[in-house]
Write the C-alpha cells for this entry.
Amino acid sequence: MSAPAGPCTKASDAVADPLVEAIRGIDTTALDCVQVNAAVLADAHHGPGTHLELGGRLDFAPRAGAHPSLPTIEEPAADRIERMGGLLGLVLRTGRPVPDGRALLDLLPEDGSPLYVVGDAFRMPWLPYHGHQHMDHSVLLRAVDGGSRVEAVDAYDNETPYGRAEPVVCSYDRAQAAALFDGSSALPVPVRIAPPARPPVSDTLARNAEDGRRLLAGDAPERYAAAFRDHPDQEEACAALLLETWLLSRSRRLHAAWAAHRLPGSSLASAAADRAAAWDTLAGQCYLAARRVQRGRPVPPQIHPALAELLRADAESAVRAATEHPGETMSHPPAQVRRTVVHTVADVLGAAPEAVAATDDLSRIDGFASFQMVETVERLEDAYGVEFAPEDLDAAVLRSVEGLVGLVLRTTAGAEVAHA
C-alpha cells in the first residue's frame, strides 16, 4: 500500500498494442480475476475468440472451503492456471511464490513480453479492493522503456462494493512497481505459446452430459444450497453465497458465449443464453440478501431453492444438448443448418444475421476476405464434426449462404453413410 498509483489509462482509451487490442475484443464481464488476463494473452497470440474455449465445460465441483462447513466451487489459483493453459494455447507453469517486489521484477522478460502474475488485490492501487480486501488477483506485468518502467495490464471488469473495476493499463517506475509486491506473496507464471486445444464440440458436450447425469442422480444441488441456508452465521453464509453465485454466473455467461461461438443459432446457444440470464438474476438476489443480512434483516427464503433448481436446470440442459447437438451422427434439417451457417458467417464478419441471410453474395458484406472465409469453414467443420473435402471448397461455394449450406449437408450425409 506504500506505492502510489501510477498513471492509469482505461484499456478502451489506451494506445493500441496486441494486449490492448485483445482486451477490446473480449467480453471481460464473463471472466473472473484469474481467467481474464490469461484470456488476453490467448487472444493476443492466437486470435479473437480463443479464450472462449474456457467456457465449454459446465463445471460444478464444490469442495471444502476456508470455512469447513461452507462448500465452494473456487479452486486454488495454481490449480486453475495449469488446467486452463492447454485450452488457451499457453504453457503456464507456476513458479515459487515471491515475497520481494524486486525479485519478482527480475523475472520480467527483457523483450517486453508479459509475465502473468497472481498477487494480492489488496495491494493493487488500480483496483477498488486496494486497501479493503485480500484476494488472489491476476495481472500482466511487462518491462518498458528499456526496463526502467513497468506496465501493469489488467482486464478485470466488475462492480464491487468499493467501486468499479475496469480494464486498465497502468505505468510505474521500477521502484514503484516493486513496492506493490513487497511484503505479500506473488505467484509468477512464465508463459510459453503452444497450439491451443480445440476439443470437438460433441466431446465437450458428452463430458458435460456425463457430469449432468451424475448430478441428477443424487442430491448434490440441494445439499450445496442447504449448507448456506442452514449455516448458523447467516452474514457469513450470505457473503460466501454471493461469491459462489458470482462465480457461477460468470462461468455460465462464458458458456453461453462459447455456445454462440461454436454453434451459432442453435438451440443450445439459445438455452445457454437463457440460463446465463437466470444466473445473473440469482446473483443479484444474493447481493440483495447479503446487504439485508448486514442490516439485521432476514434472508429472502427463495434464494436457496432457486440455487438448487438452477444447478439442476444446468444438468438437464447438458444431458439434452448431447443428444440434440448437430455434430452428432444424425440427419440435419436444412433449416437448422442454414440458421447455423448464417449465424456463423455473421459472427465471423461482425455483421447482422439478417444482412447475411438477405444477400446472395457474401463478398458484398464489409469485412469479407479470404481469412474470414477460412475461419468460417473451420468453425463449421468444428460444429458438425466433419472435414470438408478440398475440392469442395470452391470460391463460389464460400461466397454463398446456400453454397455453404449445401456443403454442410453433403458432407454430413457422407459422414453418416461412412458410419453406417
Summary: The longest helix spans residues 234-262. The chain has 15 helices and twelve strands. The chain has a mean pLDDT of 90. Residues 19 and 41 are 7 Å apart (CA to CA).
